[in-house]
Structures are given as structure tokens and as C-alpha cells.
# Entry
Amino acid sequence: MATATLDALGITEEFGIRLKDFWLKNNLKLDIPVIDLQHVWLVFLIMELENEIQPGTVPDRDSDERTRKIIADLLGFATEHFSLEEDLFLAFDIPEGAAHGEKHRHFVQFLSERTNELHSGNKDSLKVLVSFLKDWLTMHILKDDRHYADYYRDQGINLKQYFQNQVEKHALTIDRGQVAVYKLVSESEEVREIVNANIASNVTKIWNSNTLSVQIPIIDLQHLWLIGLIVELDLSSRSRNMGTSAREKIFHRVVQGATQYAQEHFATEERIMEKFHFPGYTAHLKQHQGFKDFVARRALEYRQGDTKAAIKLVQDLREWLLSHIAIEDHKIYLALRSHLPDVQKYVRELINSGEITVRKKQVELYNQVFGLQKTES
Ligand SMILES: [Fe+2]
Ligand SMILES: [Fe+2]
Ligand SMILES: [Fe+2]
Ligand SMILES: [Fe+2]
# Structure
């Protein structure tokens, strides 16, 4: 998945290597994974800007537009990153936190002024800007950011829980694109764990506030996974820094993945209904077909529309799924509840013959949700 995400972001192997070299050569890692992830993303945006002035690239009609967009993204994301750091200084007192915040503000002011000065086709001024950005970021991370990172480390403060709470409160968004780029430079699993814990906790809330279990483990597991995909889509469609066309592509890819997975799930349900002569089989099949048509229609609208359509698409998907599970799929449970052991036996056959695939990540989510349920009740 990571490679597909990198492709969607337009990251070539060569670009990935350059990014990793820059990161390692300058020794930018602070060992606070969420902060590192955001720093890598800043480097990524600066290097995207640098791509516009690579020797050999001829400015085209869209270069100006692209340049402006990247700078706007950079400005937006830098602001988000700085406020994350400053919130951190407030949460855990840090000497010279105010002076650090001042440096952030100077940078934002400088970059906003520069944006207005950039004229079309002026590669030289862009070149100067890129080298300034690289120098500033490197120096700032190595000196100022390292200062707080060392301080927290010496105080024995572990920030994982803090960031987990920020993600839950929607004060921090980490999206797939950022994780994929971060993975180019780091082996740490911490960010993935934070993201997964957040998805699991959202899925658990949805699961608990609706009566969704059909008591057939494979179907519950697949439903949980679908809800997880929708939660993830929901989070990324609301992400404040979702703006570049690359990110829209990632979103689109996830929508595609979710709908493909829905098909896989429908096939499982249909096999079970058929085998046990579920009386509402034809009507249920129609519902599934209705969903496929509806998603195809919506996806088309989304492709033609703006990013606001993304939020609407996700809400519709979510509503359809939850009501379908609670009403239609519940009927499967009612019809089959006296044959559950036979259903289980049949499911095992399907798994053994490879007709149903159960992924490790799905089992993980299933265990997390049921585990969380236990601790919460
Ligand atoms: Fe900073
Ligand atoms: Fe920073
Ligand atoms: Fe279902
Ligand atoms: Fe269904």
C-alpha cells in the first residue's frame, strides 16, 4: 500500500532517494515519531518546490500555478506544525518556549511576504527561496527543535500518549500520504500504532452505539474492517491540509479500495446466504447491487466536483453501511441463528479453500475492538 501511496503522490524512486539522503545527511531525526513525520513532510514539500527548478525542466503553462500551490501548502502545513509544537510547549513546560514560538512566527511572516514577490518564470528567485527554506528548516530542527526534544527526553517524558490524545481530539491529523513518506526514512512503528489506535477507538464507538453484531465472526470482522475504512476516509476528508491534487488522488485510491473491499464482503455474505437458503436472498442481493451503483455514481460526482464532495461521499457511505448492517444483515442473523455452528464450519471451508481471505490487520482490528469493549464495559 505504501508504494501505491507514494505513486499517487508522484514520488519516484529517485525522488525518494534524494529525500532520504537529505534527511540522513543532515541528521534531522529527533526520535519523536510524530514530530519527525511532520518534519519529513516539510522536507517533502520543499523538495517538491525544488522539483520546479530542476535543471532541464522547462516551465510550462502550469508551473506558476503549481509553485503557488506548493508554497500555499507549505505555509499551511508549517503553520499547523508550529502550532502542534507550541501546544506541546504549553502542555509540558519548556524553557524558552516563547522565544521558540517567535521564530516560528518570523518564518511564517517571511514566507508569506515572499509568496507575493514571486513572479512568473523567475527561476532565480525561486532558487534562492528553496535554498533559504532548506537552510532555515535544517538549522531550526537541529538547534531549536532538538533543544525541546533533548529536554523532554532528559525529563523522561513519553509523548506517545499525548499525541494519541491529540489525534483523538482531532487536534492532529496524520494521513496516509505523510505516513508513506515518513516510512522512507524511518522504521518506527509508533505513528502507525497511534493512527491504528485512533481508528480502533472510533470504530468501537460506532460499533457500541449501534447494534451491529450478526454473531457470525467472519461477517463481524469484515463489517468492522469496512467501518474502519470509512472512519479513515472520514478523517482524511476532514484533514485541514488536504489540498494538493496528489492528496486528492490518494483519497480517491482509498475510496476505490473501500468499494473493492465492499464487493469482497458482499461475496462472502452471498455465499453464506445461498448455502443456507436464506429466504430474503434475492432482495438482499438487490441491496448490494444498489450499493455498487450508488458508489459508482457518487465517485463520478466526486471526480467532477470539488473536495467538499469527499465529505459528503463519506457520510453517505457511512449511513448506507450502518443501516444496511443494522437492518438487512441483521436478518441474516435472525434466519441463521439456530445453525451458527454449521455456518462456522462452512466459513472455515471457504477460508481453507482460499475463497475468503482473512488478513492479519483485520484480525488485529477485530481483537482491538472486542478487547476495547471488554475494558470499557
Ligand atoms: Fe520549531
Ligand atoms: Fe519543528
Ligand atoms: Fe454486510
Ligand atoms: Fe449485506
About this structure: The pocket of fe (ii) ion (ligand 4) is lined by residues 269, 284, 288, 324, 328-329 (CB under 6 Å). The chain has 15 helices and no strands.
